[in-house]
Amino acid sequence: MTDTTELWLIIIALGLGSFGLRFAFLGLVGDRAMPEWVLRHLRYTAVAVIPALVAPLVIWPTATGGEPDPTRLAAAAATFAVGYLTKNVFAAMGVGAAVLVSFSLVL
After folding, report:
1. How far apart are CA 68 and CA 56, in angstroms?
2. CA 96 to CA 12: how far, in whole Å?
3. Could you give the count of Cα atoms lying within 13 Å of 51 in the half-sphere of its Cβ?
4. Residue 71 and residue 103 in contact, taking contact as beta carbons nearer than 8 Å
5. Model confidence, pTM
6. pLDDT digits (tens), the chain, 107 positions
7. Most buried residue among 45, 47, 52, 91 by CB atoms closer than 10 A?
């Protein structure tokens, strides 16, 4: 099997798996009411997934060869602080971006 064929098989398998997961929730369960305990757990999905996606980019960024970067750490800390204090996602993102840009210009 060539590299191209293997790549396409992997892409198709991942696409089918992704479709299957979505269909399980939207196609099979979409018109039914979910139990309260399921809804309670689903509320925390974004709270768990977003930090899991962002943390490696802050702690071990590829751009610095895996070494922690003070600029990224400061931007993450400012984003977390503003988000926690104001409960405003857009304010947190704006402050984090501003800190990232201003620190990268200074350092």
Report:
1. 10
2. 37
3. 8
4. yes
5. 0.61
6. 678 899 999 999 999 999 998 888 777 777 778 889 988 888 888 888 888 888 898 999 888 888 888 999 999 999 999 999 999 989 999 999 999 999 988 87
7. 91
